[in-house]
Amino acid sequence: MGGTSRWVPPLRWAEKGNQSLVASTSVGEGAMPRPTLLLFVLAVPALALAVAWGLLRSEERAWQAMLATTNPSVSLERRQAFTLEAACARPEVRQQVAAACARVGRLGLMRGASIATGVAGLAWLALLACAGRWARRSRALLLRIFKSGLHLTNAFLILLLTAQAALAVTALYALEAALLGRVHVGILAGIGLAALAGVVTLARASLSIVQTATTTVIGRKVTDEQSPALWRFVRETARRASAVPPHHIVVGLAPSFFVTEARVGTVDGQLKGRTMFLSLPFSRILTLDELRAIVGHELGHYKGRDTLWSQRFYPIYRGTVDGLQGLHASIGQSLGSLILLPAVALLGYFLECFAVAESTISRERELAADRIGAGLVGAPVAAAALVKVHAFAGCWPTVQSGMSEALGQGKAFANTSALFSDLARRQATPAALEGLGERRLQHPTDSHPPLALRLEGLGVPLAGVREAALQVTPAEPAATLVADYERLERELTEVEHYLLARQLGLVPAVGAGAGEATPARPLPFANDAG
């Protein structure tokens, strides 16, 4: 049960065997260690502070040496109390040592800017931690704090990168001038330009984060006229669940079920309004009641206004993840891109602070939707459907891996949905349920509780539905609700092959033929001139 609006990158699915459909983007996993995060925030300010402090000490030593030479009768204590900075604060003295006072002034400014930059970075980390905890209270609060916090964090990062770049250039300038008596203007200019490029890259990533909520699927829309039995089934389920029915039903080969109110791009064009996506491969191994539990779960998201929440929140959340991945990918492509390290670290910490709030709220929504589905058919049936979806979702990547290998040999499968159900039948053994309790239905923009927690919410242990979950050849498969479903499966199989072939640099001259889960057969290809 896929939850709410599912994000799929157009055409990129084939590059990874469609695993993007079930890929997790949890930012909580592999979080950056705190010492590393502090290093990225404080390294440049600390370096600039050390340079400023060292050069100020050097200026002070020279000043004290001059005082000892010109005023030998003055005691050491009085000379040490009359520091260069104190002397430069007196106009009559400053005029006499104008050059030294100018250097001290610049170094003092660099020292103050270093401290301010470091303190600002630490304060922002503390503020993000507090905001993340505060956002756990409600969905509305999470949306409001996350959205405004994202814009403020991006603005802060631009200012932080600018300040750190200025500190780095200033520190190197001062150090070279003091130690070498000359300055490599070209090197400093290069560092400055690289820093400017980094700021521009960050600014562009910031502008692209807030995206229009759009979902792209490889699927076909089925109308009431084309598949009246399916529509009656969905409308009856909506009535019994006291939920609104969808405006559109889309069927596809992806191993997922979801609803969304975002725009949905399909093989037949773009759809607006409430859209429900149903998996044809899974519908082959589900009973009608198990599908009703899943459909009831999805309609429960409409009932709970979850799809509107996802439409407002997850495009921003997903855009932040994409922006972070884009910034991370750009690091290492050039020496100047290293300037982005603090931005990547802080933006990653921003996501980490809100990940707990997002996952907590998402878990509550999923458990509530599970209860709605169970209320329609009973908890054991709903639990069996949950276990099936968790146990056999891994068959689809295996099918797609086979697609890639077949295409590499100039072949194609006739019906990958039928191949999926055949594979599920072969894997429907007790071993398929081992270690299943901690498995999650992974989702690109949403967090799902582990299966054990969802079964606990339904009050049904895994052992209690073991036999029903391994029955993957129902007498009346849920797929029969879809009129002429085998034709749709073959058509969508051709589309999947075609898109995958484009990724491989090949385009099929003819589509896969009819047949049930036939072995891969030879298929001629032509070079893609486009």
Summarize the structure.
The chain is an alpha+beta fold. The chain contains 18 helices and eleven strands. It has two domains: 313 residues, no CATH class; 174 residues, no CATH class.
What does this structure look like?
The chain is of the alpha+beta class. It has two domains: about 10-25 and about 215-335 and about 355-525, no CATH class; about 35-205, no CATH class. Helix content is about 60%, strand content about 5%. It contains 18 helices and eleven strands. The chain has helices at about 35-70, 75-80, 85-90, 90-95, 100-135, 140-180, 185-205, 230-240, 280-285, 290-305, 305-330, 340-375, 380-390, 395-410, 415-425, 450-460, 465-470, 485-505; strands at about 215, 220, 250, 260, 265, 270, 275-280, 410, 505-510, 520, 525. The chain has a four-stranded mixed sheet. A three-stranded mixed sheet has the order 1-5-6, with no helix packed on it. β5 (about 265) and β6 form a beta hairpin. It is elongated, with a radius of gyration of 31 Å. It starts with about 35 loop residues before the first helix and ends with a strand. The relative contact order is 0.13.
Taking pLDDT < 50 over at least 5 consecutive residues as the criterion, the unreliable ranges are 2-30, 508-530
Domain count, please report it.
2
Give, in spatial order, the strands making up the sheet with the most strands.
Answer: 2-3-7-4
The average pLDDT is: 80
Helix content percent band: 55-70%
List the helices and strands and how they pair.
Elements: H1 34-70, H2 76-81, H3 84-88, H4 91-94, H5 98-134, H6 139-179, H7 185-207, E1 214-216, E2 219-222, H8 228-241, E3 248-252, E4 258-260, E5 263-266, E6 269-271, E7 275-279, H9 280-285, H10 288-303, H11 306-330, H12 341-377, H13 379-392, H14 395-408, E8 411-412, H15 416-427, H16 451-458, H17 466-469, H18 485-503, E9 506-508, E10 521-522, E11 525-527
Parallel strand pairs: 1-5, 3-7
Antiparallel strand pairs: 2-3, 4-7, 5-6, 8-10, 9-11
Helix pairs in contact: 1-5, 1-6, 1-12, 5-6, 5-12, 6-7, 6-11, 6-12, 7-11, 8-10, 10-12, 10-13, 11-12, 12-13, 13-16, 14-15
